[in-house]
Structure formats: C-alpha cells, structure tokens
Amino acid sequence: MSPTSPLLKIAYDPIYAHPLPEGHRFPMLKYELIPEQLLYEGTITSHNLFAPAACDDEIVLWTHDEAYVQKLQQQTLSAREQRHIGFPQSPQLTRREFVIAQGTIDCCDYAFEHGVALNVAGGTHHAFTDRGEGFCLLNDFGVAANYLLKKELARRIIIIDLDVHQGNGTASIFEHEPRVFTFSMHGAHNYPFHKEKSDLDIALNDGTEDGLYLSLLQSNLLTLLDQIKPDFAFYLSGVDILSTDKFGKLKVSMEGCRRRDELVFSQLKKRRIPCVVAMGGGYSPDIKTIVEAHCNTFRTAKDIYEL
Q1: pLDDT, tens digit (0-9, with 9 covering 90-100), for 193-241
Q2: pTM above 0.90, yes or no
C-alpha cells in the first residue's frame, strides 16, 4: 500500500493543540507535532486526516449527566472541580472535548470500513459520568461506546486501556453495562490512587520491564478476546509506560512500547475486530520521545492493516 493510501483514517483538528495558560502548554504540544511528523516523513498525507465537528449534546448525554454538561457549556465549574480536572475552564477547552469525542465516534465508522482508525487525541479515561478528573472533561471512549450500543452497531465491546494510569472513569461508567468489557493494565502505585473496578485490572509493580509487560499483556489479551468474543474494540495506547516518563514508574523501552501496539493490532486484525485508537498520556521530559512513541502507534497500525 502506498503512502498516499487514504485507508488509514486519522481524526485531527487544530483545536486539539488548544493553547493553555503558562504551565499547561507542554502536554498540548504533541497534538500538533504528531500529524506534522507523520506528514513530514511520508507515513501519511493530508488525505489520511479528517477534521471532526463537535459532538451533539444529545449523544454526549447518553454518557454524561446533564447538570455536568451544562456546567461545562456555561463555564460554571467550581474552583474545586477545575482543580480536579487540572485545567482552568474556557469555552475553547470545552469545545475541544466535544470535538475529540466526535472524532472518536467518526473513527468508529472508518474502523468498520477499514479495520482501524485513530484519533490524534482522546483516551480521556478519567472523566466520570458526572465530573472530570486528570485533564479529562468528557470520556470519549465512553461516549463512542454508548453511541455504538444505542445505534445497535455493536453488541459486545472491549476497551483495552494500556495507559499507565487506570481508566477509572471508564470503569465507573460501564460498571453495570455487561455489553462493555473494561480491561485496564496500569501502574499499581500511580494515579488515580483510589482505583475503580474494571472488569479486569492488571496492576503492575514499579519498574516493570518489557519482558514481563508484554508477557502479561499477551496472555491476558488473548484469553479475553477468545472468551468475550467482542465485535468492536477501543484501544488506549498511552506512552506513559516508557522508562523515560516523568510519572509512569515503569521501565518499558521504546521498542517494547511499539511491540505492545503490534501485539494489540495483530490480534484484533486476526479476529477481524474493528479497532478505534486514542493516544492517551505521555510525559517524558523530551517532547521528541513522546512524539516518536505516539507516531510508532500510527506507523504500526499502517504496517499491519495496510498489508
């Protein structure tokens, strides 16, 4: 498949890199640099990118409480609520979250057609039904999964959350939804310090390296896919598992992170399970490390699905 192939569809809007007050800008840089790098190296062209609109309120309300959504839209979050989120509220930030959520929904349509689609942002797994936490306002996987269920486009969904932080908001949202299986493999001694209960939690000790990480992932993922038999998958491919990450506490190498993506994609493709990917976290001191690790996810998806 040539680099100009439009098969690999990627959601991106410049609002993803929305500037924030001083002290909050560094985490946003990657959202601009990831597509720039992929375009520069020829992995993708502009034909691979699409800009989502903002998600309709009605669809967001299938997952989030109306009172909370109104606070976001009317800019009436309390100071305490803003501290829990970690960002100061602004109309641009709220719109950003609605656009990200729609990007993940749009990726579902492309995944049904092509096997995989990726959102440059997303993976906002700390957002609960009624509140935001940990830099997450809306839970894009929650919104998109409920969209698929509501529209009867999927019957059994698996959420594979491999960010270093547990997907606590996602676990809570789907605690009583048997059609969505939540699988979180994360650092045991990392944020959030109060963990919710996913359908399967694998808590990793500090310093976990490639061999153990990949072994645990392979054995658990293969078992889950065979037992659950999902017809759709969401994959949160956080790169805060890297040994260079400031907060991750694990010791996974850049190659180990790439092999993680390869394992997930190859197993889902083998079983013909459509997959939507969101980037999640990454906090290495050098932005080049973060961008390279995330770009590896796009490169790996292209290599596996465009054979």
Answers
A1: 899 999 999 999 999 999 999 999 999 999 999 999 999 999 999 999 9
A2: yes
Q: What is the dihedral of CA 130, 134, 136, 139, to 10 degrees?
A: -60
Positions annotated as catalytic residues are: 126
Sign of CA dihedral 138, 171, 162, 205: positive
Q: Residue 175's CB: how many other CB atoms inside 10 A?
A: 13
What does the pLDDT look like over 55-96, one tens digit per residue?
999 999 999 999 999 999 999 999 999 999 999 999 999 999
Query: Whole-angstrom Cα distance, residue 112 to residue 287?
Result: 33
Strands 232-236 and 200-204: unpaired
Question: Which residues touch 117 (CB under 8 Å, ≥6 apart)?
Answer: 8, 9, 10, 11, 106, 107, 108, 109, 110, 111, 275, 276, 277
Architecture of domain 14-305: 3-Layer(aba) Sandwich (3.40)
Share of the chain above pLDDT 70, in %: 95
- Non-local CB neighbours of 33 within 8 Å, separated by 6+ positions: 287, 291
**H-only helix segments in the chain:** 26-41, 57-60, 66-74, 79-85, 91-114, 140-150, 168-173, 210-228, 254-270, 287-305
Strands in 180-187's sheet, in edge-to-edge order, are 49-50, 9-11, 116-119, 275-278, 232-236, 157-161, 180-187, 200-204
